[in-house]
What does this fold into?
Amino acid sequence: MQTEILPAFTGNNELNTESIDRAAALLRAGEVVGIPTETVYGLAANAFDETAVAKIFKAKGRPQDNPLIVHISAFEEIRELVSDVPEAAKKLADAFWPGPLTIILPKSSKIPDAVSAGLPSVAVRMPSHPVARAVIQKADVPLAAPSANLSGSPSPTNAKTVFDDMQGRIPLILDGGSSQVGVESTVITLCTGVPRVLRPGGVTVEQLRAVLGAVEVDDAVLHQLKAGETAASPGMKYKHYAPRADITIVRGSLAQFREYAAKQKEDAFVLCFAGEERYFPHAVPYGAAESDSEQANRLFDALRELDSLGAKTVYARCPSLDGVGLAVYNRLIRAAGFHLIDLTEE
Ligand code: TXA
Ligand code: MG
It folds into this structure.
């Protein structure tokens, strides 16, 4: 299969309706299309078409037990997907949709088992990216879409990276420029007593608490599941976002980090904050120390860059756990296989 990349915007920065129409036609015909969203690029298919959804799993090499997020373009479309819309869901949608928040609710009978991976719930998100919204509207069906990377690789934040992973596997990628948030959406479930964050993202826990009151954060966000434990969000149990290098997160001040890094092998890389590159022989920056949103925006590209530079061993500066930093840490600790050294304890 040849994979085509079409521009989603015209030279005047308007939506390229020809490209959008082509994507919508392929989606209606049961094909898989790579589309931009404000978080990361997605691999979309008609959520009601089981055969089309199966093609997503095949293209990504995704385990069958990992459910997909269903994307909508207007709030009312949620009613067809879930068995009930509780007040908390309306509040969340008012505050954060369209945007980087995914809400899990008990599913309706219209959701194929392939989408929910056999779970009784479904994850729903209304993206804010104008291209994603236009494609959903034009296709006129909800779109199931995981991140557009090969399973286990960092999520793609631009069309070229989608192409690197999906070349020959899908017919079309829409190029809508770089994803602004850079990490995947926050996932919150309303299926538990107290709403619970299963995956941190662009919408912060602090923002969710301001709207809902009590919100719990699932243990799997910060900690490795123990053998035999089941994940509330199946995606959390897989090794994720992993470049080929062995990564270790090193918590401590810049001075402590520099001293530590200086004792490592000569060919080791560091994943540092912007502006710190000059202290290290091999460094890839991932955003300014004080900007969690810049770190989120840069992280996955930085991980892929480490691969392309041939990095084998990487020591990473530890982000703060506040705000969007929690999402950055959550992705980085998985990329590091939960390997963390804490110099502040010494
Ligand atoms: O920002 C995003 O969310 C991107 C863009 C494309 O929208 N999508 C994305 O999808 O990150 P994916 O498939 O890479 O991650 C979805 C996560 C997985 O961890 C999955 O296990 C979880 O959401 N999930 C989906 N449905 C679920 C359900 N019913 N219950 C629990 N977890 C669910
Ligand atoms: Mg993913």
In short: The longest strand covers residues 101-106. The chain has a mean pLDDT of 95. The pocket of magnesium ion (ligand 2) is lined by residues 146-147, 155 (CB under 6 Å).
